[in-house]
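User: structure tokens for this one?
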Amino acid sequence: MSATTPTISTVWQCPQDNALEAAQQFLAAHGVQFILAQFVDVHGGIKSKSVPVQCLPGLTTDGAGFAGGAILGFDMSPQDPEFMMVADLNTLVLMPWMPGYACIRGVGMVGDQPCEMDPRNVLLKQAERLSKRGLRLMTGLEPEFYLLKQDADGHISPFDSTDTLERPTYDYRGLTRNAGFIEGLYGALTKVGLEVYQIDHEDANGQFEINFKYDEAVKSADNMQFFKMAAKEIANNEGAICSFIPKLSATTTGNGMHVHCSLVNEAGDNVFHDASDPSGMGLSRTAYQFIAGVMAHAEALAALLCPSVNSYKRLITGTPAAPSWAPVFIAYGDNNRSAMVRIPYGRIEVRIGDSSMNPYLATAAIIAAGLDGIDRELTPPEPQSLNFYDLTLQQVSELGVDRLPENLDLALTALEQDSLLAEALGERLIASFLKLKRQEWQDYHRSVSEWELQRYLTFY
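Assistant:
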């Protein structure tokens, strides 16, 4: 009987001792030649430098240098010191769809200080606030996306041309006829330790959701950015486009990214859970205070969780649940998907966000808002377990329930007026975010859409 070669794990586990040596051995065992040193800009766009694997020691000490003035939203000038991404070995991940490559993230530095414009640093700061209280935020992010193709004339359609059902939700053919992409993405994610637990075809033609296991907030945001990169590149290899656009058309369901949240203590216990909760939702006093904080800052949070002009084409009223599923009312309720916060027993789900959000900034903002609720011991209003889609705006108003901002401009104004979030996330970063997004809003209003041409070309 011939001896078998032991399998070398593709999941990197960073040891406490001799981490650099262990990482070099791990990379050598998998034939890695290049490491992509990565960070994200204010929009959440992934930026990288390719670093030869033998330069890993320098990457963990001095870091990889970037011209800060060239990074969107970093509010840096040509004469400023370089932005240095100093790698954290805990974040090392193979790129299974691209043999010979790995990627790594870390702390963005300018001089000898963490860069206040680095979104990951912003989340690290909020995670540190929790850590000082003996707490960690666990998050599960649920990305929805479209798998599309584009013809020579620029026309966009589902990658699977047979995906034409009026209500394709959960249709098995959406999975079987896109198996090449799904299997490739699933394989890449599981090889690096992301535990995928379900995959489904969503409400719109060409729309999917892939769910993987929750994790600590920073790790979860790292995982989401890896997921986006993997999904886009594997789709491209299949000749497809993976799009996270919030709203593809007026008649299709938008791409949400719901954020499941639970606070855990040093023992790993969920401090949001209380089985004695008389409401039956299994929530503790801390959870209710956290919810109240999120609701108190809801309008400003919208700017960070729904950060594009297109986002507000998803946050619409006056339609049944089927073409929307996006909550627009500042309310919470037991398993209520029509409210901005759903309670899936013992934890909370913030449902307003979409797949265009920067997960680092969005999660940091949720922590800051929730901690404000805890620190001020806020009490949320009564839960609403009715279907808001069935109500008129007048009926909703009579319940004392407010609406989220109807467009990016209103959301930006709310963020501009929210001093708590500015202080928590950094006034300089918020000012840069507002500047970029105000320009986006202005550019949008200066453009002329196909709708306008069709409506007004010969109307007057």
